[in-house]
Amino acid sequence: MNRHPGAPISHPRDPLHGITLETIVSQLVERYGWAEMGRRIPVRCFLHDPSVKSSLTFLRKTPWARKRVEGWFIAKILKK
User: Are the C-beta atoms of 50 and 34 separated by less than 8 Å?
Assistant: First the structure.
């Protein structure tokens, strides 16, 4: 296999392989901000006193919201 040492291994069936939920949330916040996140996915953890920590807690317990955040990340950041 000809790949750079330390480069992530690509898994064609899972575009999020090796990317943590914290990384996903942090990158979306950096690019779009909390206001846009709350507009697109209107949940309390994005709208009222948002933080990465509170968002991670909520998203880990709420599969439908996590799926929307991950889908947005794939569509806007990975497929760029």
Answer: yes
Domains of the chain, with CATH numbers? 21-78 (1.10.720.30)
Q: Which of 54, 49, 55, 52 is nearest to 68 (CA)?
A: 55
pLDDT in tens, the chain (80 residues): 444 454 455 566 888 888 999 999 999 999 999 999 999 999 999 999 999 999 999 999 999 999 999 999 999 887 76
User: Do residues 73 and 21 make contact, with C-beta atoms less than 8 angstroms apart?
Assistant: no
Q: How far apart are CA 38 and CA 50, in angstroms?
A: 9
Report yes or no on whether pTM surpasses 0.70. yes
